[in-house]
Amino acid sequence: MFSFSKCLALIAGVVAGVNAAGPLQQQTGSWGANPTNVGFYYYKPASVSSNPALIVAIHYCSGTAQAFYSGTSYANLADQHGFIVIYPDAPDAGGCWDVHTTATLTHDGGGDSLAIANMVRFAISNWGVDASRVYMTGLSSGAMMTNVLAGAYPDLFAAGSAWAGVPYGCFGGPDMWNSACSTGQITKSGQQWGSDVRSGYPGYTGPRPKLEIWQGTLDTTLNYHNFGEGIKQWTNIFGYSETPTEVDTNWPLPNWTRSVYGPNFRAISAAGVDHNIQIQADQVLDWFGITGDGSTPPTSPPPTTTPPPTTTSPNGPAQSQWGQCGGIGWQGPFTCVAGTTCQMINQWYSQCL
Ligand SMILES: *[C@@H]1O[C@H](CO)[C@@H](O)[C@H](O)[C@H]1NC(C)=O
Fold first, then answer.
1. pTM exceeds 0.85, yes or no
2. Closest ligand 1 atom, CA of 255?
3. Where is the composition biased (Pro residues) (predicted)?
4. Is residue 18 domain-resident?
5. Are 84 and 178 part of one and the same domain?
6. Which residues are catalytic?
7. Which residue's alpha carbon is at the smallest distance from atom 12 of ligand 1?
8. Residues of the domain holding 119
């Protein structure tokens, strides 16, 4: 339980939100099957758009709907843009989501994921939510649930944004906390990870939510190894190469790197950041298409006068697998952890592969 407690301590103090104009509300009464007794909370701004978009915002371990409502800026952004936010509240005593049982990992199989799916269905049926504009995002345990929902309920969501989570199925097993996964000891091929996702909704052939994953390179609570595993998983699902088609450094913050694999999947690596990653809600709304058009616009290339990187390595740890290890303007580590080598992708980006 050490890692779990550490997770709580790290996340609890981090998120700083923006006050919304109105209160968080609770949906009571009968709204759909809810076998694990998940709490249904939501925020509706004073001016809801007609046929509004919906964001399901999913809290971290030890978090609550209330904490995620007040600790993130989604409710405030709902005031500005007219969408509705649902904040599910985990029934577990430790405040974590069940992302491990076969029930929760399976379409309409039960568990916490079914309750969240039924909240979405209720919102579509009763609040006029546009079924084609339902999105999900979560932090830590909520990011794990975002991956679970992308696998088990691909029919409900148009897009997802997972912050410091693990791949779909990585926590599978008997316990709420999976130490092998959290410490980065689970490695599979893209095909295996993809098969895990496909098992979440056997026979499903419809579109799948486009997904972005974000993670700090120093994350040890849910080890950064899982970032690379997630890239394998979702590139397999979308039929993309595991080598990005575009890499943008210093996006959206200095030392963060956006790798684009295709229109439906991108991964943002936050160099020097631990589990305590700062959610970039404006970028999430752009990805969903609530603001912007949902595409990944190219960033301007750095000026050609930028000096090339030196080949000397600064003091400090070697870069992790999948991390950046070179490229014009790069000042981070140029050496890779054992078992990986620094490979040049293009002049702006080399990666430990
Ligand atoms: C970016 O990385 C460099 C090299 O590790 C570091 O010196 C700098 O402080 C980092 N910048 C930010 C904003 O984190």
1. no
2. 1
3. 298-311
4. no
5. yes
6. 140
7. 254
8. 25-288
